[in-house]
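Notebook entry, structure prediction.
Reason for the run: the old model in the group folder had no record of what sequence produced it. Starting over properly, with the input documented here first.
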Amino acid sequence: MNILDMASTAGHVLPEKYKTMSVEDMGKAVQNIKQRMGNRLYIPGHHYQREEVIRFSDVTGDSLQLAQLSAQNREADYIVFCGVHFMAETADILTEEGQTVILPDMRAGCSMADMANIAQTERAWTKLQELFGDTILPLTYVNSTAAIKAFVGKNGGATVTSSNAQEMVSWALEQKERILFLPDQHLGRNTAFDIGIPLNEMAVYDPHKEELIYEGELEDMKVLLWKGHCSVHENFTTANVEALRKEQPAMNIIVHPECRREVVALSDYAGSTSYIIDMIEKAEAGTAWAIGTEMNLVKRLIAKNPDKNIISLNPNMCPCLTMNRIDLPHLLWALESIEQGTIINPIKVERSIADNAILALNRMLERV
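New structure, fully documented this time:
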């Protein structure tokens, strides 16, 4: 489901009263509801969320981690997921039937996940099977829709995270001669390169032109990358790195592997969100860091590490627009709707899709 579909199917517009309430009054109302509901309510918050939302979260983490923690919390009747749509889907897939997962604003989607829909993927799979036969195993980044996870699960593949991508790509290439990596080409390319696969053995599948783009011999292609990307991380450029090296040569540069290959190659460190947070927190006082990831997280790291000099690698970077949809008014609206018995924006994945998606998730969890 893309962002426009989410907005049209939600059927709800934020009531006017939430637009006129003060931040203080909204904060008090959220806190009061949390106290009244106690363990029946669980609010996971993704690292990229606004500070006004994170401060009310029961736990902070990355997408899969939050879904797993939600699944472990059997006491909660309601899981108000402060993240984006695919994350809430994963939480619904992993939680119990009697638990309700809610996304405070259905417009909170992910442009990367939307770059691979199921119809495109099934057409691509047919074309790629015609080219390569039964030599391909599909992998999908967890930043993908439930339907894509289900497709991968049904076809023998698995999900990956930015933390375990190397292990999962290595595993997949032990099963089949080739992989199809969905939906982020940059994470796929960076991961494959890091485990020793040369760039000339990687091809890019363009779902709009429905063609495979490559150099060299077709039979040499081992990694088939979906032409998708993160709109935030793709905005970090080699020009950003080169300017920083010239102006502040002593500064460490650390980026997320969703950045372009050439940016990762020029950086000092690259790793998942958890890796970045851990590196900054353990760094010595007085060290300097330029971070190539989402701006809400960068600001939070700056605030939590006043003994270090931290900046964004791109000085003009803004927060993830869709992640930023979850704000304090929408959070309060979601919580009040629970108490009023008129739940807004519940996330429910069809059982047939959920069952196949679980196959893909479990194949990963069994190996990492």
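Summary: The longest strand covers residues 136-141.
The old model has been moved to the deprecated folder.
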